[in-house]
Amino acid sequence: MDLSAVGRAVLIAREGRRLEAYRDSVGIWTIGVGHTAAAGPPVPRAGLRIGAAEADAIFARDVAAFVRTVAEAIPEPLPQHAFDALVSLCFNIGPAAFRRSTVLRRLRAGDRAGASEAILMWNRPAAIIPRRQGEFDQFLTPYETALPRARRGDPLPVPSPVAPASPPTARSGWRARLRDWLHAAR
Predict the structure, then answer these.
(1) With contact defined as beta carbons under 8 Å apart, do 83 and 139 qualify?
(2) What does the alpha-carbon distance between residue 151 and residue 133 come to, in Å, rounded to a whole number?
(3) 20 carries an active-site annotation
(4) CA-to-CA distance for 162 and 156, rounded, in angstroms?
(5) Is 15 in the active site?
(6) Is the omega angle on the peptide bond into residue 148 within 30 degrees of 0, that is, cis?
């Protein structure tokens, strides 16, 4: 499995994108989309700045490792929304913590409901709770039912990435549309 476009957009919304290094809620130097020294170079430090393209490239490299971790750890394929929620959790808590988590233990026991509840056990610091609730909701809710919110308290879901509009074709005029409609009505 791979992270979907919706899952990627939600994860970016949860992490934020900052082009100047900062200390996160627990004091770890971070830059770009949740990139820390634990993920490899560049090592975030005071005064470090990167461009938007570099932030996107670092994120693509970083997230691939978390996708692999989740894909290799889960006992069976999950619905896309649930897989994306687990990648978000793993991205935040790290691969080692994910591999030994109650979430994964319950999934391996065939208890998806218990696994979803175990997401909420990762509740420190307290500021992370709305994110965990968002991951919990994402794990349980198919994208066809509702798009996920970055955090449960957010007023709107994360906008779905839109595929580029297809270029006009020779049959895009009103006559062609009428002909297609008449053909479909037969």
Answers:
(1) no
(2) 7
(3) no
(4) 17
(5) yes
(6) no
